[in-house]
Amino acid sequence: MMDACCQPVASGVSNPAVRRMLWTVLAVNAAMFVAEGSAGIATGSLALTADSLDFFAEAATYAVSLFVLSRSLTWRAGAALAKGSGMLAFGVAILVAAAASFASGAPPAHTTMGAVGALALAVNVACAALLYRFRGAEANLRSAWLCSRNDAIGNLAVLAAAVGVWGTATHWPDVIVGVGMATLAIVAAVQVIRQAIGEIADARRAIPVVTVR
After folding, report:
1. What domain range is 44 assigned to?
2. Which helix (H) or strand (E) holds 173?
3. This prediction's pTM
4. In the chain, which end has fewer C-beta atoms inside a 10 angstrom radius, N or C?
5. Exposed/middle/buried for 137, CB within 10 Å: 0-12, 13-18, 19+?
6. DSSP letters of 59-95?
7. Is 99 contained in some domain?
């Protein structure tokens, strides 16, 4: 879900309406990353914690669009490298937590999972609605809209995990969804890191060598 959503909005950022919209979705996604991630940690829900990575990736992408897109390739690649590294660290941490949960086996609070998952779904739908009016303007804005829409799939997976935890009274539905989403995050992070490293190398090769005679 995240691998196609890691590209910044490359054009249209100079448009005041687009900038206001990007600031709004950046703030909302950043807030939801903190809220959903905190809820996941507090309840021991791997699915909630993993789902919060979508909000982290989206917020980082919009931040790159607003702050670094006009800078050099090295700046942009460095920002992407930082984002990919953060996604990778969070994803690995979730897998470690999943391994630890095999011993405890305590199910997370399914009511909190359902409530926060529903809130995350509503936020992604709202962001998709904000981006909807710009979806036909250019390919990158359409991509951003599609990403917000596709992130809702992860929210539905969290809701399904909450129902599964409630129905089985075990932590396994949460573990399965959490591990699956964390794995997707790690794959996306590796792709971002590889691309960023390649772009940094390209930028360094493009620097002219000055010889002193």
Report:
1. 3-203
2. helix 172-206
3. 0.79
4. C
5. middle
6. HHHHHHHHHTTTS-HHHHHHHHHHHHHHHHHHHHHHH
7. yes
